[in-house]
Amino acid sequence: MTVGNMDSAELFDAGKKGRGLRARKDLNAGDVVFSESSFSAVVFDSLVTKVCHSCFRHQADLHRCAQCKFAHYCDRTCQTACWSEHKHECGAIRKTGKAPSESVRLAARVLWRVHKDTGIVSDSQLISVDQLKDHVTDLPEEGLKQLQTDVLTFFAYWSHGRKQHSVEYISKLFGIIKCNGFTLSDQRGLQAVGVGLFPNLCLVNHDCWPNCTVILNHGNQSALSSALHSQRRIELRAVGKISEGEELTVSYVDFLNLSADRQKSLRESFHFECTCQHCSEKISDDLMTATAEKDGSKPSADKVKEIIALSKEYLERIDIARIDRDYHKVVTLCCDCLEKQENVLADTNLLKLRVFSITSEVLSFLRNFSEAADYARRMVEGYTKLCHPNNALLGMATMRAGVTHWHGGQIETGHKFICKAYGILMVTHGPNHAITKDLESMRTQTELELKMFNEDEKKYQSMRDAALQIPV
Fold this sequence. Notes:
- By secondary structure, this protein is mainly alpha-helical.
- The protein has helices at residues 76-96, 102-117, 141-157, 167-180, 259-270, 277-280, 285-288, 301-323, 327-341, 350-365, 369-386, 392-407, 411-428, 434-455, 457-467; strands at 9-13, 19-23, 32-37, 40-43, 63-64, 72-73, 182-185, 192-197, 205-206, 212-217, 233-238, 249-250.
């Protein structure tokens, strides 16, 4: 599908939800409904020296813009490809002596783009940037104070020179970004690295159990000429069968939260009350708060209350230890917490799943793969009971479990998990995404190793130990 093609989606009146997009034809799992280049995008403040400001890939030894000394790029071709976005920003940073926050930088980039191309940059863009919802009047007092600060900073930074704008207009622009900004991940999908504005994507309404997912495709930056680069873009992908005329939806929040917590987050960030089926019927809330059952009996309410409070205390201490990079302490705290949760909280309980995730991640980092594998497996089993079968989070967790088992010497289980993850991410990410390509290589490698294991287990173990440099 070409970038910007909207043949599969159309704008419609979604009733109380306002505008929405619906399918113009039947779609299957993995189909790209549409793709869209960013109207504007910026790297987060904390990662400006670690992520390319053009393709949003994590890279080592980035090249710095010689003029403003703020923007960083993979190489000269990435820098040239980004110059139309960066040139006004470059002058503004040099004029003011420093770069402002990411929200101010994005607002300025959006306005420079509006001045250059108007609010609609292609025939396939269904709505002007100015027509997007801003919800400024719904902001709480603290939000309004921050907005006023951002607007003042913006005017000090703005250096377009030809046209000035009112406080009301710039406030509306910040409101649009706050309500509609889409978080961009790095090439491995492991870390949020920036934020961008995608007008057509903004028209897709929320559902806690959506029929679509959004992924960032970083484009191809391998050509020597920046003119031949393919643009970074989001892809809206169907996660299941969608019938013609059916509304297209994505989730604005993480589903792995209780319905009341999701609704609260949506009210605060997006200013609407979620009435989707999963919230209205509190679907999966019972699993997310489930208690363990042993020999037909469950722990007392007082015991459950005690362990929940204790788990929250442990998680606070675990977070502090992670910030301090005291990973051995993290493991100790996690194991202590899980010991207390055992026989009290079920494996689908959100508090227990969070500890499973941290434990498997940190043990893998410490290269204790055999121990990490069991926690990763239990995490995936819990996610599987809670998530949509083609949920990207489930796919990533399954991939981690596969790699952990593989490195832990459990080649059969590792290969099984990797194949399952590949099936999910082929739907959510597509065959050309860096993660899916990594998984394809892993699947091929584990298939070869599994064949060797089945033919001669002893020979396979010797080969594996030598590869991992483990004394036999």
